[in-house]
Amino acid sequence: MKLIAHRGLSSLYPELTEIAFAKALELDIHGVETDVRLSKDGIVVCVHDPIIDRVADGRGRVSELTLQQLRGYNFGTEAMKQSVLTLDELLEMLVQYEDKHLYIETKHPVRFSRILEEQVVLRLRYHGLLFDPRIHIISFAASSITWMKEMAPQLDRIHLRRSWEKWLNPVPNFVGHPTGLGISVERARKNPEFIGKWGLPTYVWTVDNASDIRWAKKQGVDMLATNVPGRAAALLARN
């Protein structure tokens, strides 16, 4: 089972910051996960929420702030100040670790629509990673999975599924032809038959409880996103 550090080593360091990823990349795990959005001036930044209020010492919507404005805020703590991280900067970190994978979650809905995916593809191409099997695109938005298939069909595309989607898509006619499916650990517990269903690899989030980690391994989960990757790795090594 592949362990993925959710938003970097977010249980010990400010989420989606340089220090969080630096520490996660040092661990003996499969890879790291990041969320991405576009700033007002079209820069791909690693921020989960549409607004920065929760994770920075400022206020505002990511899409209404330029990179320079975002740089003016602290995304860390008083004792550990951190600037907003761009996807370019994260990719520069990744290339130093040849064994690590990166899961890029495109956040939607956003005012920029498919421009977000276009910019992600451009950044990957710039860093020589567009055809690298270590790059995985994940999203709750079927539209994002479709756009990525059009622009970079060689990339792994994991569609994160919500519970209500089974009513909209009762048959396995997945938009964008994803190469993997993702479900929450809560839904996986209730419906373990979804794991590996339709022959697609399963990505499960966000799994921090020891009993859930052991359960996921027994159920054959392929990829597991966790806030405690070090602890999860140690646990699996003992079991």
Structure description:
With 239 residues, this protein is α/β, with parallel strands linked by helices. It has one domain: Phosphatidylinositol (PI) phosphodiesterase (TIM Barrel, Alpha-Beta Barrel). The protein is built from 9 helices and 9 strands. It has an 8-stranded parallel barrel.
Looking at CATH, the homologous superfamily is: Phosphatidylinositol (PI) phosphodiesterase
Average predicted local confidence, pLDDT: 94
Question: Strands of the largest sheet, in order across it?
Answer: 1-2-4-5-6-7-8-9
- Measured distance between first and last alpha carbons: 12 Å
Biggest sheet architecture: 8 strands, parallel, barrel
CATH architectural group? Alpha-Beta Barrel
H/E topology pattern: EHEEHHEHEHEHEHEHEH
InterPro entries: GP_PDE_dom, PLC-like_Pdiesterase_TIM-brl
Protein name: Putative glycerophosphoryl diester phosphodiesterase 1
GO biological process, one term: lipid metabolic process
Domain GP-PDE: 1-236
List the helices and strands and how they pair.
Elements: E1 2-6, H1 18-25, E2 31-38, E3 44-45, H2 67-71, H3 87-94, E4 101-106, H4 115-126, E5 135-139, H5 142-151, E6 156-160, H6 165-168, E7 180-184, H7 185-190, E8 202-205, H8 210-219, E9 223-226, H9 229-238
